[in-house]
Amino acid sequence: MVEKPSIIVVGVGGFGKNHVRVLAELGGLGGVCDIVEERASTYGKLYNVPYYGNVSDIPEGAYDGAIVSTPTSTHKDVAMELALKKVGYLFIEKPFTQTVKEAIELINFLKKKNVKTMVGFIERFNPAIRMVKKYIEEEALGEIIMASATRVRRWPERVTDSGVLLDTAIHDVDLMRYLFSEDPIKVYAKTGKSMHRIHEDYATIILTFSSGKMAIINANWLTPYKIRRLEVIGSEGVVEADLVTQQVTLSSKNDRITPFSEWSEPLRHELKYFLNCIVNNENPIPGEEDAVRALKIIEASLKSSEVGNSVEIYT
Question: Could you say which of 35, 169, 200, 260 would form a disulfide bridge with 163 (CB–CB 3.0 to 4.6 Å)?
């Protein structure tokens, strides 16, 4: 049993710097690694932890866990190298890998090395989503009929190896699976390129579930401000959630309530959970299966847009 896990963050540019900050606040930061050595040095000295310019420089057996927050195209190689360094727990930022094929290869390798893995679907740890999930489980909405999600912002220039589906919409794909407690069986999607020459930068996805539920996901990198909203419609009510402000409103035929809840950082909840999994030797959730199922839906969405028809999703 590990009483106080030591975690190394690999990739401290972009969102990785937030992992560094929060882990330091939680007392779990053990080191940093970044291919830009000046960046690694800056954060290592700032937080008084060892720093490395390459994963190969990390000592074997030095860390209980690692955060992989490098570009998606490098996740597989970085994770494998960390496993060879005898890191027992890996937290791999979404979308885990670029393809389902890569994800399965990585998972098989990590299982052979007895590495437990978590994927960074941070919205599951958003207090607003937890409240929505609670309302659904308590049947406050009656029978769930459909849900819709909007996730838009200006194109994040840090993302160069994937489009809006893989980088952005995958959050809401995972949320629909999580909130509905089932996997979609069919998808119809339309995507397009406006400002991004290589990858799609706007998309609409319609997911169909065997229970009859439906989900609509809109994502783009065109809107000049950030919107992250979710709405779930049931036979007896509707719940609306702003995932940025974490305000949740429940409406029924006779009432409309917006419970007060103090804002708290989802990443802090997520990383605290990851640390507790290491302490208690537990398998983290969301894990490898959630990563693969979300990737399968994204790949089916891209195919649907390409062929212009709905596509079945094979689990």
Answer: 200
Kindly state the average pLDDT of the residues 263-291: 97
281: number of Cβ within 10 Å = 11
What are 88-136's pLDDT values in tens digits?
999 999 999 999 999 999 999 999 999 999 999 999 999 999 999 999 9
At 246, list the tokens.
């974490």
In this structure, is residue 2 part of a structural domain? no
CATH number at residue 157: 3.30.360.10
The secondary structure of 224-276 as a DSSP string is SS-EEEEEEEESSEEEEEETTT--EEEEESS-EE--------HHHHHHHHHHH
Please tell me the pTM assigned to this model.
0.95
Domain count, the chain: 2
Residue 229 belongs to a domain:
yes
* Residue 220 zone, left/alpha/beta (φ > 0; ψ -120 to 50; rest): beta
pLDDT, one tens digit per residue, over 212-221 is 999 999 999 9
Residue 27: exposed, middle, or buried by beta-carbon count in 10 A (0-12, 13-18, 19+)?
exposed
Bridge pairing between strands 311-312 and 256-257: unpaired
248 near 132, Cβ under 8 Å?
A: yes
Query: Is 210 in the same domain as 227?
Result: yes
- Structural domain of 308: 123-264+296-312
Are residue 160 and residue 230 in the same domain, yes or no? yes
> Quick one: pLDDT band at residue 199, thresholds 50, 70, 90?
confident
